[in-house]
Amino acid sequence: MKQLFYLAFSILIVSMTSACKKSSDPTPASPANSTVTLHATDGNVYWNGNNETKQLAVKGQLTTKNLVITGTGFKLQVDTIAGIVGTYNLTPTDFNKFIEINTTADVYVSYNNSGQIVITSIDRVNQTVSGYFKLTMMSSTGATTFTGDFKNVFYPGKSSMTAVINGANWSAANPYYGVNNGQVNITGSNGFGGAPIFLNLENVTAPGTYEITLSGSYRAEYYTSNFIQYKATSGQVTVTEYNSISKVIKGTFSFTAPQVPDTGLGGTPGPATVTVTNGKFNIQTP
User: Fold this and answer.
1) Where does the chain have alpha helices with state H?
2) Hey, what's the signal peptide range on this chain (predicted)?
3) pLDDT tens per residue across span 135-169
4) Given this model, what pLDDT does residue 284 score?
5) Full DSSP string of 126-164
6) pLDDT tens-digit profile of 79-91?
7) Whether residue 175 sits in one domain with residue 126
8) I need a surface site. Which of 9, 141, 146, 207 has the fewest CB within 10 A?
9) Of 33, 35, 34, 37, which Cα lies nearest the Cα of 134?
10) How many domains does the chain have?
11) Is 49 in the same domain as 105?
12) Which of 154, 170, 194 is the last residue of a domain?
């Protein structure tokens, strides 16, 4: 029975590593065509001589709450569930969705005006976002209608999972989470066949703090590189952000786990108990 367990566990680790390959790829370099193209439709704004169109090199920041794109003389922000493709309407009373444009002659702002910002695509593997906008902008000389688009704007960031185990730093090369019949399974392993942590949380649909027990709804396990198993008897997992649509989960964890008797493949015996502290996870699934 023990040999069958180790064989099954080894297959599980291989499958997890394969399934998480995209998440563990190095953070890609910023694409060369990360730009915003601006155009003043009434022809009253000139960027360079008589050229009324301008392309700006920009960078992005994307979370489940905000999309922010900034460049020289330009800022775009969309708040609330901005990690989702869709149309976001600007209104006179919403100051958290806006565009600002600064030229050498004037400053244009979309506050107290109307328009739309549309996110057309989000590439979570290459970490880029694209879309377009059309809105009325105000300046010292009056109203101007701007249209434009943002193409493959790069937003830095990478899934991560870290902890301290009996005083030693641990980090996952390929953190991953999935949902199966209402159970959120968070997994991290520091390389092929190496020291994984499993967090199993039943019926988690929103941020909150969950107490870890040995056989309850919220459980944690740790395995050494030679498959000595540890099951947590106490601890906590705090989910600080969870969005099942944009596939992002963030939080912290800590637990104490005694060794499960008669586990491991031999070699150096593990400690009787492992104490996991300062655990953190920030996982985005493509």
Assistant:
1) 2-19, 21-24
2) 1-19
3) 888 888 888 888 888 888 877 666 789 999 999 99
4) 73
5) TTEEEEEEEEEEEETTEEEEEEEEEEEEE-----EEEEE
6) 766 568 888 988 8
7) no
8) 141
9) 37
10) 2
11) yes
12) 154
